Amino acid sequence: MTKDESLIEAIARQENSALAILYERYSKKVYNTAISYLQNAEDAEEVTQDVFTTIYQKASKYRGEAKVSTWIYRVTVNKSLDMIRRKNSEKRKGFFVSLYKKDSGDLAYDQSTFDHPGVKLEHKENAQQLFKVINELPDKQKSVFILTQVEGLPQVEVAEILNTTRKAVESVLARAKQNLRKKLEKYYPNRGDNN
Amino acid sequence: MNMEEWKKDIMGSLDGIQRAEPPADLFAKIQDSIVHSEAVKKIKWQLVAASVIIILGCNLFVAKDYLTTKNQPKQELQLPYSSNFNIY
Predict the structure, then answer these.
(1) Residue B49 has pLDDT above 50, yes or no
(2) What is the 3-state secondary structure (H, E, C) of B29-87?
(3) CATH class of the region A1-98
């Protein structure tokens, strides 16, 4: 099997077959990370496209300081957060720009319920409520929670992706979980009382 | 079920989550976008090159014109406005 580093070198030489292999290896990881952040399949598709285009364009600048997987996750996290910021700023301009899609009339920024396609059927409803509160976490807590709990990455790798220490990841994760529990209680004060 | 148990259930709802499949045509879209961005980059460089050539051309023209004018004898440049001052 070709090493990731060799693939990046080949991509830098504009070999499309190397990009295809890298895509085969990482597209699911990139798409799933993006969908957890953006909670929308179309946006996740756009970010995935953007991530692989960036990899193709910046491959010649890759110096191997971080693992290729770390680099790809880092690009994905940054692109996803950028898109969230852009969407939030568009929402603020809603006074001037329509918040509804032209063709269907649906809300363009509706994130009230998100069904992650990979969640088990019996957990769908609970996962919807969890994703709703994940959406409200600060960027760092959101990143740590998504990468460790949804993507299932080890804390050491998450620390490399976010350019921090494993200890910091551990403490941010604890804070994120605590915040999620608080938010769940705030949004659903009557749940768990009598059923 | 009390609140603590309910929260535990919610927090555990992502256990065993499967990876979602990206759309089948996504790689083709990525290839298209790469080709498109390469083309845009090429056009940008062509525009930059054209602008540089135009600016250099204009400068050469002005410099050549300036040097030609400078080398002309002064008398030629000081022609009278009119040779006939009798207006009536």
Answers:
(1) yes
(2) HHHHHHHHHHHHHHHHHHHHHHHHHHHHHHHHHHHHHHHHHHHCCHHHHCCCCCCCCCC
(3) mainly alpha
Q: Are A19 and A56 in contact (CB under 8 A)?
A: yes
Taking the domain A112-195, which CATH number applies? 1.10.10.10
- Enter the tokens of residue A55: 């990899």
Taking CB atoms and an 8 Å limit, are B26 and A127 in contact across chains? no
**Domain extents in chain A:** 1-98, 112-195
Two tokens, residue A98: 């329509």
Q: Could you tell me if B16 lies within 8 Å of chain A, comparing CB atoms?
A: yes
User: For residue B68, which amino acid is it?
Assistant: T
Spans of all domains in chain B: 47-72
d(CA B13, CA A164): 28
Residues on chain A touching B9 (C-beta within 8 angstroms): 126
Judge if A1-98 and A112-195 fold alike in CATH terms. no
Instruction: Report the chain B residue with the minimal C-alpha distance to residue A41.
Output: B22
**Amino acid residing at A128:** Q
Q: Dump the DSSP string for A58-91.
A: HGGG--SSS-HHHHHHHHHHHHHHHHHHHHHHHH
What mean pLDDT, rounded, does chain A reach?
Answer: 89
Residue B65: pLDDT band with limits 50, 70, 90: confident
pLDDT tens for each residue of A46-81:
999 999 999 999 999 998 889 999 999 999 999 999
